[in-house]
Amino acid sequence: SQTIHQWPATLVQPVGSPLSLECTVEGTSNPNLYWYRQAAGRGLQLLFYSVGIGQISSEVPQNLSASRPQDRQFILSSKKLLLSDSGFYLCAWSVSGRATDTQYFGPGTRLTVL
Amino acid sequence: AQTVTQSQPEMSVQEAETVTLSCTYDTSESDYYLFWYKQPPSRQMILVIRQEAYKQQNATENRFSVNFQKAAKSFSLKISDSQLGDAAMYFCAYTGGSRLTFGEGTQLIGFGNVLHCGSGTQVIVLP
Predict the structure, then answer these.
(1) What are A29-59's pLDDT values in tens digits?
(2) Chain A residues whose beta carbon lies within 8 Å of the beta carbon of residue B42
(3) A91 contacts in B (CB within 8 Å)?
(4) Tens digits of per-residue pLDDT, B84-105?
């Protein structure tokens, strides 16, 4: 069966520091991968999605970036964090080639920027 | 652009009762999927139920069912025989392509009215 992992679970970082959040998927090949951000008590905002290695689409211009160095690995990064980057970050995957297929979510990373 | 609207920021339900969460959406697509996700305090998003737009039959998963009204672009979630574990934030979502568009969520608050007893503890007082 497929599983999705996110690391770390929680993170507290000072303003201006770099960021690297990791998402890995097991049990499937060539998945579509997604990064979402959720502010407290709000809905999810799509940040990036990827349909393959090295293929990244950005939905919201910001100081965040994403990379997909391996088929089942998706990384969210920043060179300098802002206070507004605080939030809950969720990674998700769906079956490749089926645009309307279900997305399955990881456990999330809670990021606090001080 | 596709939009998803959940007009109820908060709902409450008594244990064992039924509650319906509302969702409407706007799209020009003819082929799309609709979802309800549950987000408990752990904040992991858990898929509750899925509906394909081309299917007229309403999806059902155990105590969870939907009322899909395609013409009205309405997709409500009914939870029957509510349990305390159903208390969570519920998100309605739509996808007609690679993007999943979420509503703002409905916080479901559960009220227990059934007394759950443990197995008991025998206390023996020795002289």
Answers:
(1) 999 999 999 987 788 999 999 999 989 998 8
(2) 107
(3) none
(4) 899 999 999 998 876 789 999 9
DSSP letters for chain B? --EEE---SEEEEETT--EEE--EEE---SS-EEEEEEE-TT---EEEEEEETT--SPPEETTEEEEEETTTTEEEEEE-S--GGG-EEEEEEEESSS--EE---EEEEEE--S-------------
The single residue listed with the structure tokens 């029957």 is B80
Chain B environment of A41 (Cβ under 8 Å): 89, 105, 107
The nearest alpha carbon in chain A to B35 belongs to A102
Distance CA A48, CA A74 (A): 10
pLDDT number for residue B2: 79
Q: Looking at the complex, does the CB of residue B88 fall below 8 Å from at least one CB of chain A?
A: no
Is the Cβ–Cβ distance between A14 and A113 less than 8 Å?
yes
Q: Best interface-test mutation with A: which of B98, B102, B104, B108 has the largest number of A CBs within 10 A?
A: B98
